[in-house]
Amino acid sequence: MRTRRLLTGMALGAAALARITAAPAQADPAGPAPMAGGWAMSIGGPIRSCASVNCDPVVQTSYGDNVYWTKSVVNSAGNRWYQVTHPRPGYIYCMNITAPC
Question: Does residue 20 register a pLDDT over 70?
Fold first, then answer.
């Protein structure tokens, strides 16, 4: 009886795991759907004139500042940046705000 329960549990666990691990193989090859904008908290860092660390800083944000972003973009180096409109228009690196990277 114990063996039967163990095998049933293993089969159910394998079925649940198969559903979880099958999702990435079915992912859209074009990439994730665009994310909607909104308010996020800055953890500090510059808002830049373009989506690159080489671009000029427009304004420096501090921890706790609110920023409003309208869309996310991925630059040629593969880094995610958020286009922001508040406090100043520009781009902020995804690790510098609380929005998901």
Answer: no
| This prediction's pTM | 0.66
- Backbone φ and ψ for 46, nearest 5 degrees, come out as -85, 150
Fold of 38-96: SH3 type barrels. (2.30.30)
Q: pLDDT-derived band of residue 55, with 50, 70 and 90 as boundaries?
A: very high
Q: Minimal CA–CA distance to 41: which of 65, 70, 13? A: 65
Q: What is the mean pLDDT of the segment spanning 78-86?
A: 96
Cβ 94 vs Cβ 69: under 8 Å? no
State how far the Cα of 21 lies from the Cα of 99, in Å rounded to an integer.
Answer: 26
Q: Domain-by-domain residue ranges, the chain?
A: 38-96
pLDDT of residue 82: 96
C-alpha distances (whole Å) from 80 to each of 49, 72, 73, 76, 94 are 15, 7, 6, 10, 6
